[in-house]
Design goal:
alpha+beta; Cytochrome Bc1 Complex, Chain A, domain 1; 2 domains
Length: 448
């Protein structure tokens, strides 16, 4: 029988969200363990979450947490950096260590058959890193080179300038990776002291998901981490500043053929009572490809390859940012269109079709985000880092579906005050400046 290709087939029923059950344990030293058994594929993923983010470092040594994370595989008392690299290569495992504003994470992914040796590797790098002087010098120099190269990337310049304008000298006003001035001051002693103080089990969490039996998991973790000791206090969020009054900032990048644009304000932390309404509102405004701002600037006007918005949820109030890049001559008009779309979200009710598309985009793809052990570890770690309810993901679809158009308009009124939006552009001031007439006084600056 020939199918009728003139009629769209009916949509299939939404896939259910099937989450594995997690067992919870705590070692006598305070290390929390959460484990989900998945025996369908012979693989294991784990994520160690530590209270050692940038909020735990002195501001004068910004980037210390991130540099320490990069140095974990730079050598142990019995192995130099090359030996550690060969060891990881023999395991065939993935390993990634990084730091955020609140916590640091060490993630691994490997085949079940090397489970014990992979835990040996994790323990050696997290507990016994030696931080050789030459490796500290090498990785610090690499980081300084990266910072210098970022000065040539207008998107990075715009991102860093935006958060600095919103948060000033506060934690969220600086990059987790530090600046050239602060990174240059990080010594081997500073790294060792930070590791000694912040790599402790009392507030740490080890999440494990994969093909390993509980009776094998417990003794293996106890053997490698049971003697680990010490306390590192939780990294508390910084106080939320008041959003600055609206201003227009133009950072001059002579000869730039296009302009990086940011429209930003102080947002909210994770877990507010209107959390799900914020998510739906952002999806409609600029969180999806078919959002208002992207359809306006990309599809209708053809001014950009893409425009997006986002609330960056953290333990503290992270920023809301709308971002795009346009031809220099379109700088002012692009700002005007973004502001018009934000104002429309505040004053007019979104349509039923917009609500349907946003709900579907946010919920129907959710099961795809829990398909692998690594994805599951990532989702669970987010719950624990930000103190989200245990049923956050199980109830996510229902809570998104329950959001109303009135709630969408209300959160836009509440959080997107057009009198407190910072407008920032990075581009050729001589060409972009005249397009900004009508937006208010323009503060023209040089790239720092």
């Amino acid at each position: 029988m020939t199918p009728d290709r003139t009629t769209r087939p009916a949509s299939a029923a939404p896939r259910p969200l099937a989450l594995p059950g997690f067992e919870r344990h705590r070692l006598p030293n305070g290390l929390r363990i959460e484990f989900a058994e998945r025996r369908d594929i012979p693989e294991v993923s784990l994520r160690l979450v530590l209270e050692n983010g940038a909020g735990a470092e002195p501001p004068s040594r910004g980037g210390l947490a991130e540099l320490t994370a990069r140095l974990l595989t730079a050598g142990t008392p019995n192995r130099d950096a090359m030996d550690v690299a060969r060891w990881l290569d023999r395991l065939g495992a993935g390993y990634h260590a990084t730091a955020g504003y609140s916590v640091g994470t060490v993630s691994m992914h490997f085949l079940t058959e090397v489970f014990e040796e992979a835990l040996d590797f994790l323990a050696a790098t997290v507990l016994d890193s030696a931080f050789p002087e030459r490796e500290v010098d090498r990785l610090r120099a690499e980081r300084l080179d990266e910072i210098e190269r970022q000065r040539d990337d207008p998107a990075t310049v715009a991102n860093l300038a935006t958060i600095a304008e919103l948060y000033g000298d506060g934690l969220y006003g600086r990059s987790v990776a530090g600046t050239s001035d602060t990174v240059a001051e990080i010594s081997r002693d500073a790294v060792r002291e930070f590791h000694e103080a912040r790599f402790r089990p009392s507030e740490s969490l080890l999440i494990v998901c994969g093909d390993v039996a509980p009776e094998r998991l417990g003794p293996a973790i106890e053997a490698r981490f049971g003697a680990w000791s010490g306390h590192a206090a939780r990294v508390e969020p910084p106080p939320a500043p008041s959003a600055p009054e609206s201003e227009v900032i133009l950072i001059d990048r002579p000869g730039s053929p296009q302009t990086e644009i940011r429209v930003a304000t102080i947002g909210v932390p994770y877990g507010t009572g209107d959390h799900h309404a914020i998510i739906v509102a952002n999806a409609i405004l600029g969180g999806l490809f078919n959002s208002r701002i992207n359809l306006n600037l990309r599809e209708d006007k053809g001014w950009t390859y893409g425009a997006r918005t986002g609330f960056r949820f953290r333990r503290g109030a992270g920023p809301f940012v709308a971002r795009t890049a346009v031809e220099t001559a379109r700088t002012g008009p692009a700002f005007e269109e973004i502001l018009r779309e934000i104002e429309a979200m505040r004053t007019q009710q979104v349509t039923p079709e917009e609500m349907r598309l946003a709900r579907n985009a946010l919920t129907l793809s959710l099961p795809l985000q829990f398909e692998t052990a690594a994805q599951i570890c990532g989702k669970v770690s987010r719950q624990r880092i930000f103190d989200l309810p245990d049923d956050y993901w199980e109830t996510y679809r229902g809570r998104i579906d329950a959001v109303t158009p009135d709630q969408v308009r209300e959160v836009c009124r509440k959080y997107l005050d057009c009198d407190r939006l910072t407008l920032l552009a990075v581009g050729d001031a001589a060409a972009a400046g005249p397009t900004l007439d009508g937006l208010g006084a323009v503060d023209v600056r040089s790239i720092a």
